[in-house]
Design brief:
CATH topology of the largest domain: Rossmann fold
Mean pLDDT: 91
Radius of gyration: 18 Å
Structural class: alpha/beta
Helix content: 25-40%
Distance between the termini: 36 Å
């Protein structure tokens, strides 16, 4: 989201130049969504370049990186943030594998070799389907939904979808979660808010989180200048989960919350789930 302002200005220019039919308006709205929220790197990287334990699979045009769990261990369904690709997270996925956890990491449409163009509807539909079909890749290993930034909203919507009612997640981990994408626009560029106010579908996590009692772990940097830590605190308060933990570091930013102390607390929390 570092190119947030530039993206919005460009999208507004494009929208202003298009005819005003309903179909065009819908297309322009999707274009605006793509320009602002999805700064994906389309470059493909073989997962073996990150970790020999990871294998590539294709799922409905998407690239998946899959690492098998050790017996009795859960699998992390890893839902990345809006920047870069899975290779950018090369320091995270081995951390899970080293502890025996399985990993299924999803490259969104337009990210890291995955086909198609991103939108809220497309990303969420594919994520829901993937959750349903996880046993094909990792057997009966229980699932922990692990969302990073953009992926936090995706994770929460999976947790409240019918696929999760049939096979509830073991837990949910959210790194730098937002209350909604519209709230994020209001925080970062309030002058642009009128362009998004009608998009109540853009991952309204402050509403979705009330619908799941799954164990919840939130980690959020105190100096996060992309998603304010106040949003993470709000979601923590709104969650009805009887098992919820909020961990912060007052000096950490959007990505640097991935630190030894926070990881130790997260590991203890995960290990107590099974």
């Amino acid at each position: 989201m570092k190119r947030f302002f530039y993206s919005v200005v460009l999208a507004v220019f494009v929208i202003a130049s298009l005819p005003g039919s309903p179909a065009t308006a819908q297309s322009a709205q999707t274009l605006l969504e793509r320009r602002v929220f999805y700064q994906f790197n389309p470059k493909w990287t073989h997962p073996k370049n990150v970790d020999e334990r990871l294998k590539q699979h294709r799922f409905e045009g998407l690239i998946l990186w899959v690492g098998q769990p050790k017996p009795g261990k859960p699998t992390i369904l890893y839902l990345p943030g809006s920047g870069g690709n899975l290779a950018l997270r090369r320091y995270k996925l081995p951390w899970f594998l080293d502890r025996g956890y399985g990993v299924v990491a999803m490259s969104y449409p337009g990210m890291g070799g995955s086909e198609g163009k991103p939108s809220h509807q497309r990303i969420q539909t594919l994520a829901n389907k993937l959750y349903q079909r996880l046993p094909k890749y990792v057997g009966d290993s229980p699932t922990i939904l692990w969302g990073e930034s953009l992926g936090t909203g995706v994770a929460l919507e999976i947790a409240t979808h019918s696929v999760a009612r049939k096979r509830p997640p073991l837990g949910i981990v959210l790194q730098a979660p937002y209350t909604s994408m519209v709230d994020l626009v209001a925080h970062k560029k309030p002058a642009m808010l009128p362009l998004f106010q009608s998009r109540s579908d853009l991952w309204p996590s402050k509403r979705t989180i009330k619908q799941t009692k799954a164990p919840l772990f939130i980690l959020h940097g105190g100096k996060d200048d992309t998603v304010p830590v106040s949003m993470g605190r709000t979601l923590y308060k709104l969650s009805p989960s009887p098992n919820k933990v909020f961990v912060t570091d007052p000096e950490a930013g959007h990505t640097s919350i991935w630190r030894k102390d926070a990881l130790a607390k997260m590991l203890d929390w995960i290990e107590a789930l099974y």
